[in-house]
Design brief:
Layout lengths: L2 E2 L3 E4 L6 H8 L2 H7 L7 H9 L7 E6 L5 E7 L10 E8 L8 H15 L5 E7 L3 H9 L3 E10 L2 E11 L13
Parallel strand pairs: 5-6
Antiparallel strand pairs: 1-2, 2-3, 3-4, 4-5, 6-8, 7-8
Helix pairs in contact: 1-3
Bound molecules: coenzyme A.
Length: 179
């Protein structure tokens, strides 16, 4: 399934995206903030495409005009419970495209997809402490901060902020319905 925004097309990843995915996923400024190890080679990126990005709810973010790969975004499949069907939104963008509002545009479309196509009741989003860019994307999409927790994984210890967006009732105002 493809989704369209003003400047992007969100489509399933393909093997041929591996080289372009590697170009930005090898960068610490992207990987460290996203919480995964930097990709080590094009083959590594291909493995991620065939495993992690194989999910129907994870999309290649591409330039609507040129088709170039700009990033990745979608639902991780991680449920945190408590609010009915839920999932977690995750994303990363090639730094060449940072600061133009692209990921906010993409996330608003994915939120609509999550509520309308996946029939979610709640969408979670998290960011590490200090990731102000991601925090702003989350805030601009209307999420509310719920709690913060220090998490430990192979990559280190991170204070992580958790945000929640509940499916609005019919007629309730929201920031994503008309995107
Ligand atoms: C997070 C990321 C996807 C943001 O994408 P983007 O398209 O640049 O985001 P937008 O342009 O829609 O919004 C960025 C906002 O951060 C603000 N910003 C930029 N630098 C900032 C900083 N150092 N501190 C705080 N805010 C900052 C921008 O001004 C903008 O907010 P505004 O519209 O209120 O001015 C991108 O930076 C990225 O891929 N980062 C690495 C991976 C990552 O962090 N993934 C998310 C893991 S939780």
């Amino acid at each position: 399934m493809n989704l369209t925004t003003e400047r992007t097309v969100l489509r399933p990843f393909r093997d041929e995206d591996a080289a372009a995915l590697y170009e930005f996923s090898r960068l610490h400024q992207v990987a460290d903030a996203a919480g995964w190890p930097p990709h080590k080679s094009v083959e590594d990126s291909l493995r991620v495409i065939r495993t992690v990005f194989h999910s129907p709810h994870i999309f290649a973010v591409t330039d609507r005009e040129t088709g170039a790969l700009l990033g990745s975004a979608g639902f991780t499949g991680r449920s945190r419970g408590g609010y009915g069907p839920d999932d977690e939104l995750g994303y990363s963008l090639d730094p060449k495209w940072w600061g133009k509002g692209i990921m906010t545009e993409v996330c608003r479309r994915l939120i609509r997809y999550g509520f309308e196509e996946m029939d979610l009741s709640a969408i979670w989003c998290t960011h590490y402490d200090g990731n102000g860019r991601s925090r702003r994307v989350i805030e601009k999409c209307g999420f509310q901060r719920v709690f913060s927790e220090t998490l430990e994984d192979d990559l280190g210890t991170h204070l992580t902020h958790f945000y929640l967006l509940l499916r609005p009732a019919a007629g309730e105002e929201d920031t994503w319905r008309n995107t």
